Amino acid sequence: MKGFRAFIMRGNLVELAVAFIMGGAFATVVTTFTAIILALLGKLGGSPDFSNYNPGNVPVGKFLTALIAFLILAFVVYFFVVKPYQALKARFEKPAPAGETVESLLTEIRDELRSKPLQP
User: Fold this and answer.
1) Is domain 2-115 annotated with CATH 1.10.1200?
2) What angle is formed at CA 86 by the lines to CA 83 and CA 82, rounded to 5 degrees?
3) Residue 74 in contact with residue 30, Cβ under 8 Å?
4) pLDDT tens digits, the chain, 120 residues: what are they?
5) Closest CA to 71 of 33, 34, 27
6) Which among 19, 24, 44, 33 is positioned nearest to 77, based on CA atoms?
7) What is the pLDDT of residue 16?
8) How far apart are CA 110 and CA 106, in angstroms?
9) Alpha carbon distances (Å) from 4 to 8, 10, 28, 117, 118
10) Residue 120 pLDDT
């Protein structure tokens, strides 16, 4: 029981649960926004719903509708979530401390070895 309680109380498990809940809520928002964009596309160029499209009796219409919805959803997530997050992260992230590189350390070792005479 003690191990189970420690597992449940781990910080990353709680963070994962919160992320899962927020992801579900955000998915609803993005799905609704995608529906709005599909409706606007329907107003501009006809119905974006290809569900009844069956060339040669092959039902590809639902796939086309799902593909367009996915591309719109990916566009929304990328430009309204990923890009702003990357910009904020770059703005507030502290640069890594400039330490010695592997090459400079190896050069220093080489020079140190060259300066010492060989002992028989």
Assistant:
1) yes
2) 40
3) no
4) 888 777 767 667 777 877 888 888 888 887 888 778 777 877 777 766 677 777 888 888 888 888 888 888 888 888 888 899 889 888 888 776 677 788 888 998 999 988 887 776
5) 34
6) 33
7) 80
8) 6
9) 6, 10, 33, 62, 61
10) 63
Q: Which two tokens stand for residue 19?
A: 């992320």
pTM assigned to the model: 0.51
Which alpha helices (H) appear in the chain, and where do they start and end? 2-8, 11-45, 61-77, 83-92, 102-115
Tokens of 47: 């119905």
DSSP calls for 74-88: HHHHIIIIIHHHHHH
> What pLDDT score was predicted for residue 83?
92
Query: Distance (Å, rounded) from C-alpha 40 to C-alpha 44?
Result: 6
Burial environment of residue 73 by CB neighbours within 10 A (0 to 12, 13 to 18, 19 or more): middle
Lookup: tokens for 73:
């959803």
